[in-house]
Amino acid sequence: MATDEDTTTAHPVPCGVRALSASVTALAERPLFALDAATTRATIQALAVLEAKVASFKLAVLAHAEQVQVGAETGCTSTGVWAANATRSQKNVSAAQVRLATALETRWTKVRDALAAGAVNADQVRVVVNALEDLPEDLDAGLVTQAEEALVAYAVEFDPTELRQLGAHILTLIAPQVGEEVDRKRLEAAEARAAQKRRFTLSFDGHGTAHGRFTIPEVQGKMLQKLLHGFAAPGHVNCTLDESGQKREWVKGRPSAQKLGEAFCELIENYPRTNAPKLGRTDGTFVTTTTFDLLTTALGTATLDDGTPMTAAQAMRLACEARIIPVVLGGNGEVLHQGRARRRFTAAQTYAMHARDKSCTAKGCDWPPGLCHAHHDTLFSQGGLTDIEDGRLLCPHHHARAHDPAYDMKVHADNKVTFHRRT
Questions:
Q1: Taking CA atoms, which of 128, 271, 296, 363 is between 20 and 30 Å from 265?
Q2: For the residues 285-293, what does the mean pLDDT come to?
Q3: What is the mean pLDDT of the segment spanning 193-209?
């Protein structure tokens, strides 16, 4: 930090820094009310140039500090750590500044000179250097120099965000054939890394709310973002209503986190059933159990096939709009009893078993209904009927055990089953 105490010799550098500090202090004491708009604009631009020059000089001093190992006498492990302690800064920030300073002094001299002239600012310098150091190590030296010159020239026109995009494809801009091949390899590697990082976790807090985290590749993330923005767009046909029953007013700008959350729920509810993957014999449709009176009056409660409760009002809405089949409605008149006309249970029958069993029916097993198989209590090959009264849900493990001749399956009064090895 700047100090008025002269702890150095009369070297022109510290003397000049103290003089510059005193000049800035004097300027800060001068009133600004007399500056008109035009002069204020010019002053802000001049200050930006001055700021770039000061940043350039600071980086040059940091590079020198690395050479003379300023932290050695105090036992600091690096120049960055010493600088962080001396200036009360974050260690990672100071370490990054030392690395940048060293790179500018030893390799990226054209970028350093542009910063010293005030032609680029410190933010742009970081973007340019990151782009240059991301170039392939075996790249021809002439192309590296050309890339540095091009990015310095672009910095005169473009802000850091735009410059970052240009830097990512600088080889394509200056040497298309080389750049396209490099970009292809880089994208392949990035996609492979992103594919390995795919994750999704979902937990339920027991108070009616689910919480999740996910990591997906950027392309799929953009696709999801576009879908959600579509559901959150003004005038969308499925736009949610506010507490008074009126459509919510669209807030200019990006949709809020709450709006995107509402859009995500709409996306889930409106996902086409015909496109849903199969879970056993079903297509991922939920089944809700309630009475006819509760369903039609929208009073009371209903229960999903995995035991999750919901209001009858929500069950009625979802039955009309989304992925819920109320068991009481009979699945649009589908036949739930078909004797020996078919060996396999239909989707409608499986939905009914989802609602009745709610999970694998083996004692102690909590596999959800969507991951279970529909099993004949009396094997079909031994005269069993393909009726829901003769069927039950079993997870893949217990379904295999039910067909294993080494085990007996016993049905208990609560419709749960246990298995015992035959003697």
A1: 296
A2: 52
A3: 90
Chain centre to alpha carbon of residue 304: 29
Residues constituting the chain = 423
Which amino acid, one-letter code, is at 177?
Q
Which residues, in sequence order, are CB contacts of 353 under 8 Å at separation 6+?
A: 345, 369, 374, 388, 391, 392, 393
Whether 376 and 389 have beta carbons less than 8 Å apart is answered as: no
CA torsion through residues 55, 60, 63, 67, sign: negative
Tokens 């031994």 belong to which residue? 382
How far is it, in rounded angstroms, from Cα 195 to Cα 197? 5
Residue 274 confidence (pLDDT) above 80:
no
Q: What is the DSSP string of 75-91?
A: T-SSHHHHHHHHHT--H
Q: Cα 3 to the chain's mean position, in Å? A: 45
Burial 215-240 (b: 16+ CB within 10 A, else e): ebbeeeeeeeeeebeebbeeeeeebe
Q: Pairing relation of β-strands 417-421 and 301-304?
A: unpaired
Distance CA 105, CA 101 (A): 6
Query: Comparing C-alpha atoms, which of 346, 396, 409, 347 is closest to residue 367?
Result: 396
Residue ranges with strand state E in 134-254: 199-204, 210-215
Mean pLDDT to the nearest integer, 129-143: 90
CB 90 within 8 A of CB 126: no
Which pLDDT band, with edges at 50, 70 and 90, does 329 fall under?
Answer: very low
Residue 330's pLDDT band (cuts 50, 70, 90): very low
- The answer to whether residues 305 and 323 touch, using CB atoms and an 8 Å cutoff, is no
Distance from the Cα of residue 22 to its chain's centroid: 48
The closest alpha carbon to 175, from 143, 129, 137, 133, belongs to 143
Backbone angles phi, psi at 20, to 5 degrees: -65, -40
**pTM greater than 0.85:** no
Q: Give 335-338's long-range contacts (Cβ < 8 A, gap of 24+).
A: 336/387, 336/388, 337/387, 337/388, 338/386, 338/387
Q: Where are the beta strands (DSSP E) in 314-394?
A: 324-326, 373-376, 391-394
